[in-house]
What we know:
The protein has 39 helices and 16 strands. The chain is an alpha/beta fold. It has 5 domains: 8-228, Serine Threonine Protein Phosphatase 5, Tetratricopeptide repeat, CATH 1.25.40.10; 232-326, Serine Threonine Protein Phosphatase 5, Tetratricopeptide repeat, CATH 1.25.40; 487-533; 547-668, Nucleotidyltransferase, domain 5 (2-Layer Sandwich), CATH 3.30.420; 674-865, Rossmann fold, CATH 3.40.50. The chain has a 6-stranded mixed β-sheet with strand order 7-6-8-12-15-16, sandwiched between helices. The protein has a 5-stranded mixed β-sheet with strand order 3-2-1-4-5. The protein has a 3-stranded antiparallel β-sheet with strand order 9-10-11. Strand 1 (558-565) and strand 2 form a beta hairpin. It comes from Streptomyces corchorusii (Streptomyces chibaensis).
Amino acid sequence: MTAGSEPVLELLPMVFADPGEARARAEHVLRAAPSPVHASVAHQVLGIWQRDFGDLRIALRHLRRARDLAARAESADREADVLATLGVALVHAGRTRQGLASFERGVARGSGHTRARVLYRRAYVWWVLGHHREALEDVRRALPVLRQVADDIWTARALTLRATVHLALGAVERAVADFSAAERLWDTTGQEHDKADAVESRGLAAFRSGDIPAALRLLDEAEERYAKLDTPTYNLSIRRCEVLMAAGLAPEALAEADAAIALLDRIGGQSTRKAELLLAAARAARSAGEAHTAIARAAVAVRLFAAQRRTWWETHARLVLIEARVAAGRRSGRMVADAAAVAERLASFGSPAAPEASLLAGRIALALGWTADAERHLAVAARSRHGGPPPARMTGWAAQALRARAAGSRRGVLEACRRGLDVLDDHRMTLGASELRAHATAQGAELAALAQEVSLAEGSPRRLLGWSERWRATVLSAPPTRPPDDPALLSGLTAYREIAARAEAARMEGRPVPALEREQRRLEREIRSRTRHMGGAAADAGDRLDVGQLLDRLGDVRLVELAVVDGRVHVLLCGQGKVRRFAGGSLAEAVAEAEHVQAGLRRLAHPGAEARLPLVEAAGRRLEELLLAGAVRHLGPGPVVIVPPGALHRVPWALLPALRERVLSVSPSANSWLRARETTPPPDGRPVLVRGPGLATGGAEVPELADRYGTATVLEGDDAQVPRVLAELDGAGLAHLAAHGTFRADSPLFSALRMADGPLIVHDFERLARSPYRIILSSCDTARLASVGADELLGLVTALLPLGTAGVVASSAPVNDAAVVPLMLALHKGLGAGLSLAEALRDARTALPGDAVHQATGWAFAAFGAA
């Protein structure tokens, strides 16, 4: 190397510290008629930048030029270094054979320190190709030399790579040790891009350790670091997709993977990254229930991996392809053989996905009636139930449950389902955000369904009730983690409220709002991300239903829990010391009928639609036949509690003829009703009345209620701003909120009530130390909920129940604002007489005028809980 080369050579480490600056300086070097050595370095820097952040075709041109210039300069080490960089680029371009040949020449040309760097980069390529043993061997050869010459940057890179390989092999503890050692070295350098990569790698390690909130936090931090460097984040997208899927957020993962693929295609980026992103998209589509999308993505990924000679990756993509084809309804003996071959190949790689492939082979064999083959494959999959991360143990217990069912052992099925759901409970309670807890339950849906099938076959209504409760409204079974006093989160909520209010005002004035909507979506993403970083605080999964205790506490109340097994509704009537089962109708028919009723109520909210009333009433009779069936004759004269599945949360239960004249309440689960019943009101609970802006009646009931209560806190006009409203609601005995409600099916925790300064959203309510003992929400759609996970509901009502609220009155449909006023006044009259919410609502309905608008308004409201 010639004298004066050092400033130019500094561009190589700079490309991972400040990529944009390194690129600019390299271009400046080339404009100054440099020597072959300097030109070689500059072209290499530009090649690295294009390889990692730009167009791979341009990268290859720069790197070939850098190689030729190094040869002309007769610098063996310079040539070896460029050959290694070129080898990485060729492999990323899918030219695996040429890339490995470039590495062979690089190892032969280099010596000492340079050869160690070449070996490190070949180890990286081995990892990309899925050759983990070869990768570990090259790192083993490189590390002592890098340490000997005190090359902290390349030592840290080698440790990070070795940790990543350990993770691929399931050796989490070894990986964490290497990541920690690498991070200590990064702290001594100015390699900002490498530091961001280290944070990303720690996120992956946290995920492999089962800590999803920490993984999301670290990946978000890495993204912020990359953004400051203005560098793309394809690998980060792949890793985040994996974490999002584990958290039950498959649609988000699919959207992220597809967006990254589109960007990569636009710039002509790495073929290897595209294949990995296609695999991530296929996995996400399969988890999201989009089987045909998953087949399309996985098939392309398989072809790309095969062309790139990446057998490890290709095998994982084949697993997803077979799973997607099964999800699309395909079954064949060939598919059993293919799944078994994939399982064998994955096991030879030491991949944690091997049990999943064996379970798949067993499932297909069972569907074909090949019991001996199924037992062989399921037995292999079941070995994973006793160790490893939660998904592997869940896979093992699912396999064990299927084995027991095939063998006719009902006890074995129930034991396997119990053990598997216990694993998922432990995992779920590491999550602080109620959204993540709810979505995570989807992973246990199959086990819960198997247990319900066995309980039904045994003819035990008590056991069927227990298993229906085992996986229903689990998010409400333990107090949520209260969001931290995070200044950034509080700032984000305030900014979101302001932007949303400005957007609403612009819409009302007919002004364009795209820029405001974009900013609103950005703030939503920021708020969602920060709340997902919360770890779980509960030590266990919350209360489990004690059926005996439930029956003892019911008294003259009849609790009707609707269980769904194999698409049919089963009515479990609890009361008089026993649980009785009645066969209901098809869930699909009931859901369709409920939608017809909702459409009718929407029409009846406006005068002039009286002709719809007989149709709505007829639909109510059909719903009663489907959902209550023979249980109607055994309801008795007392109060009734309905516990519907998530799919039926929008049924207006008061419309059903057998329930119209009853004291009626609704609960997400029997356990939730028990807890609400045992909740005590605050000793100094005060009434709070809130009137938001823009109501057609102006919230006409509020002034009269203020006179009636006398000591109530009244918030209206500028006083009805979110911070003040939350402060007054905290610990209140009774809260009446007259405000426009907005339900967000796409993001239920952003469902809102409109206050003077903008929306009061579910995330705001979650900050309350204790929500009001009783809450009355007098506007439209406040009881609408999103059904997610196995059988979870997210929305305003379910956010309030675990925070100390024992009872809520809310509407599941649009209502007529004018007709709401007399209903609310009558409701509060009953509360003033000492009635419960359900009793007062029953009496309020009977006090309304008999016209269609008022009847529909009464049916739209329901009492939730037990206060």
